[in-house]
Amino acid sequence: MGKSILEVFLEYWPIFLKGLIGTLRYAFIAVFLGSILGALVAFLHLSKNKLLSSIAKIYVNVLRGTPLLVQMYIAYYFIPMAIPILNNVDVVYFVLLALILNSSAYVGEIIRGGINSIEKGQIEAARSLGMSNKNCMMKIVLPQAIKNILPALGNEYIAMIKETSLAGTFMLYELMYTRTLLANKYLIWQPLFIIAGIYLIVTLVLSSLVSLLEKRLRVSE
Amino acid sequence: MSENRIPLIETRNLYKRFGELNVLNGISETIYKGEVVTIIGPSGGGKSTFLRCLNLLEEPSSGEVIFEGNILDVNSTDLNKHRQKIGMVFQQFNVFPHLTVMDNITITPILEKKINKVEAEKRAKELLEMVGLEDKALEYPNKLSGGQKQRLAIVRALAMDPDVMLFDEPTSALDPEMVKGVLEVIQALAESGMTCVIVTHEMGFAKKVSDRVLFIDEGIVKESGNPIDFFENPQNPRTKEFLAQVMY
């Protein structure tokens, strides 16, 4: 059996901390950039132009209908091969790109749902006042939609924290990657429990923050 | 009504279909400047759809809406300019829940008419005083009763300085004790010379404020006339039947 979990944690905690920071950072980047891209996807999806909305639909279906790990492998091997100029770019970015695109599909659906959740009467009132389409979207629909979807975005961030564990496969320094590092020191089972514990604590804490947020948003309604 | 009446909104042969359903079957009507027109009729008869066509919230399947001499067109950017002159009040109020009472009123004048904030708020305060909501300026709409929300919706439309106000069953979603306050605001507005088109089920109110009553059923205007003739001596058998059902 070797060392206990506690002993391994006390000896190597800086490695786990660095891994956790990596995880939180990659998840944040994925959800943040994924949200911007996702907003675009949502607008395309809601567009009256059939071609644009079908493109968005296909995009969402492909990214949600295939495993993230497969998407990461494709990004990792195929992009540098297909675009030779990118050969010298750190592979971290390709893996991160896969995370961002994947997140954008999920966030795009969240945003679309948020926009659709706004009563038609709100839009009619704004348009009847003579508000332009753009102002109606930016000042009336989106502020209300964003408020409605904040909890769902929080949950997406939590999900993404777990998803980033796949990035360790490509040697991105995140929490799961610490397993590989410590396996080199013949520590096989202890890191797994430590890693699982850290994921659990982080997701539980964030989940309770999200429900707190949900409660507060409901009060102001 | 004098002879030199100025047409404000005119519809020409307005048809509206929703799928297989023909809701409007050719309505040609003229609303004159300063006129107060109430529209009554059975549910599903097309009166709300007709009203919603007047500012193209509902796009007619065929026919034209002419406002102040301009044919309204959904694909034209001028439509927003014209809509600014056509205030509308909805059954469900549709106040903006994420904005304070004050911001509900000022947001569109500031954004679309480029009126400065100080000026817009000064005007909003006058309007709020007019409807007895001056102490609610900084509240959010969730703190208002239904009647207060509807009065807010009315002054929000007035803040754009419209030439006509459209009311789509403005009291149908209100608790009974809230109805009077809202009707009084509309009546005061009508008496001040504002052109009003009002879809309503409040027959007493229609009789009191209207210059003209339209009875819309099966997508056409079946009868139209001054309120006294209309209510006391209706001609069309459908009008008679309808009034017999609703007058108590």
Short description:
The complex is a heterodimer of chains A (221) and B (248). Chain A is mostly helical and 221 residues long. Chain A contains eight helices and no strands.
Account of the protein in words:
The complex is a heterodimer of chains A (221) and B (248). Chain A has a domain at 24-175: MetI-like fold, CATH 1.10.3720. Chain A is flat. Chain A is built from eight helices and no strands. Chain A has 221 residues and is an all-alpha fold. The relative contact order of chain A is 0.15. The mean pLDDT of chain A is 93. Chain B is an alpha/beta fold and 248 residues long. Helices cover 37% and strands 25% of the residues of chain B. Chain B is built from nine helices and ten strands. Chain B has helices at 47-53, 78-84, 101-112, 117-130, 146-158, 176-191, 203-209, 227-232, 237-246, and strands at 7-18, 21-32, 36-40, 62-67, 70-71, 86-89, 164-168, 195-199, 212-217, 220-225. Classes of the chains: A mainly alpha (221), B alpha/beta (248). The interface between A and B is medium-sized, with 20 and 28 residues.
